[in-house]
Write a structure and sequence with these properties.
Helix content is 41%, strand content 19%. By secondary structure, it is α/β, with parallel strands linked by helices. It starts with a strand and ends with a helix.
């Protein structure tokens, strides 16, 4: 039985993130979507809001659960018996950053491997920070995020 962890800030979760979860759910027996809580990051959504949004969106996947963690992701993986960290990549810049991070994580805990899953082409340009900016300016984000996230963003930016 192989358990994997898909960590991220998910501020907010996008259709690209959901695509990675869908595809990874076919590869692993268990997946922990790990909401990384970092008080140094200034997120639009609180960790509780992000947790609620993510939990609702992964309900269709019986082998996916959602958790929060404020420490090193590799420590979470080791503590919870996960052997794989899943990282979604959109482009060469993502790969370069994620590759360096994977080397550091492997150095910290060599029993945990990193698997890169390239995004589906239609989600290539999705980036949480860009989606928040577009939503703030009143742009159409309906193809970029699930409906519940679109509504939450509209509420944050008082666009109802």
């Amino acid at each position: 039985m192989t358990k994997a962890v898909f960590p991220g800030t998910f501020d907010p979760i996008t259709n690209g993130h959901i695509n990675i979860i869908q595809r990874a759910a076919l590869l692993f027996d268990e997946i922990d979507v790990l909401l990384a809580v970092n008080e140094e990051k200034h997120c639009l959504f609180s960790s509780e809001e992000r947790l609620t949004l993510i939990k609702d969106l992964v309900l269709p996947y019986k082998n996916v659960s959602v958790h929060t963690w404020s420490g090193l992701v590799v420590e979470y993986a080791k503590k919870n018996g996960a052997k794989v960290l899943i990282r979604g990549i959109r482009n060469q810049t993502d790969f370069s950053y994620e590759f360096d991070l994977s080397l550091m994580n492997h150095n910290l805990e060599n029993s945990v491997e990193t698997l890169f899953i390239p995004t589906d082409q239609k989600y290539l340009l999705l980036k949480s920070s860009s989606i928040k900016e577009l939503a703030r300016l009143g742009g159409d984000i309906s193809d970029m995020v699930p409906e519940s996230v679109r509504l939450a963003l509209e509420k944050k930016y008082d666009r109802n």
